[in-house]
Structure to design on (305 residues):
């Protein structure tokens, strides 16, 4: 992990910096990555994406919740989001984090919160993607995913991270589920004993797990802005006659927008991850860490105000 990335991720949990950032609101520059603070604004942004042939996944931001009421409230919020999607007829599913649903309080409580959301998704013929957080939450996340996947096979999917050594083994163990995975490089600050420290290894592993999953006939969401990964996927799927209906590209709101539009125009399924809500600070710092040049952009913005 680069020093700059490590430094930026190091401030994610810093309370002083986080309250400073929240006070200065989205004007600090976070609005480049966050589609507003309300569901209504987020839906308006999805409508614009849909008009360009890009579908979406809505993320009501929040994580690391330690209160039962707040976690249950976060689940209620996701139910409203699914209802809002149905009512506004936008093309979007939802993505959520288990620590927002109470994973740090109790696994069963967390699972029942997520089950309420997944059950609503089934009723509305929609889909819930469980984001993957840091490796300390991985085993519990997989276990909850397995429980939900058994009862709601078509309405829940998971994220797998290529920077983790264990991902290949996890995929093998879960292969009987024929799951719909989103494959990412991984965005958290992880130690060398659990994650590849070198970018080349992370990239190679990402290609490897995508190939493996597709060759087994499963659906894959390739979530990366890295053109080398995207080109590789296109060449690989063409070379192995894997239909476009078996995979989609995913990118984040506000990043590589031209590339998102170009792929959609070329006939690929492109899904944009659209985060919204008031708790944007940890999401924002991960975006800064991925590209330290973003920090300069934010500082310039701040001094302009
Ligand atoms: P890489 O970091 O190599 O970047 C390739 C290029 O993309 C850069 O050169 C730059 O042009 C552009 N780029 C990338 N990040 C940028 C940024 N922040 N600002 C501006 N430009 C940027 N992670 C995780 O651990 N758990 C999860 O659940 C998810 N979920 C998720 C969903 C979706 C839809 C995406 C796209 C990503 C995630 N991630 C994630 C984040 C992921 O792990 C990873 O940190 C980022 O996608 C950055 O890696 P890239 O694959 O884009 O490549």
């Amino acid at each position: 992990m680069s020093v700059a990335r490590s430094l930026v991720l190091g401030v994610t949990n810093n309370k002083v910096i986080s309250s400073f950032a929240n006070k200065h609101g989205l004007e600090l520059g976070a609005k480049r990555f966050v589609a507003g603070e309300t569901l209504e604004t987020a839906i308006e942004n999805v409508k614009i994406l849909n008009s360009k042939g890009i579908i979406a996944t809505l993320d009501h931001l929040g994580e690391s919740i330690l209160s039962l009421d707040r976690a249950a409230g976060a689940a209620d919020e996701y139910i409203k989001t699914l209802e809002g999607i149905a009512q506004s007829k936008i093309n979007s599913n939802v993505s959520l984090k288990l620590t927002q649903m109470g994973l740090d309080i109790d696994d069963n409580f967390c699972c029942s919160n997520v089950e309420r959301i997944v059950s609503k998704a089934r009723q509305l013929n929609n889909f819930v993607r469980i984001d993957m957080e840091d490796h300390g939450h991985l085993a519990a996340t997989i276990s909850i995913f397995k429980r939900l996947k058994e009862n709601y096979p078509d309405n829940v999917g998971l994220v797998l991270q290529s920077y983790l050594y264990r991902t290949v083994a996890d995929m093998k163990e879960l292969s009987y589920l024929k799951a719909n995975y989103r494959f990412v490089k991984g965005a958290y600050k992880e130690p060398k004993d659990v994650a590849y420290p070198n970018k080349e290894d992370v990239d190679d592993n990402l290609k490897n797990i995508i190939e493996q999953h597709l060759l087994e006939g499963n659906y894959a969401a390739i979530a990366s802005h890295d053109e080398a990964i995207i080109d590789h996927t296109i060449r690989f799927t063409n070379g192995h006659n894997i239909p476009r209906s078996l995979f989609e590209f995913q990118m984040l709101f506000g990043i590589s927008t031209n590339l998102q539009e170009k792929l959609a125009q070329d006939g690929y399924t492109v899904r944009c991850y659209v985060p919204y809500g008031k708790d944007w600070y940890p999401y924002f710092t991960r975006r800064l860490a991925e590209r330290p040049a973003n920090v300069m952009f934010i500082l310039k913005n701040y001094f302009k105000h």
Q: What stands out?
A: The pocket of dihydroflavine-adenine dinucleotide is lined by residues 131-132, 159, 161, 184-188, 223-226, 250-252, 255-256, 273, 287, 290-291, 294 (CB under 6 Å). Strands lie at 55-60, 92-96, 128-130, 156-161, 181-184, 220-223, 247-252, 270-276. The chain has a mean pLDDT of 92. The first helix runs from residue 3 to 10.
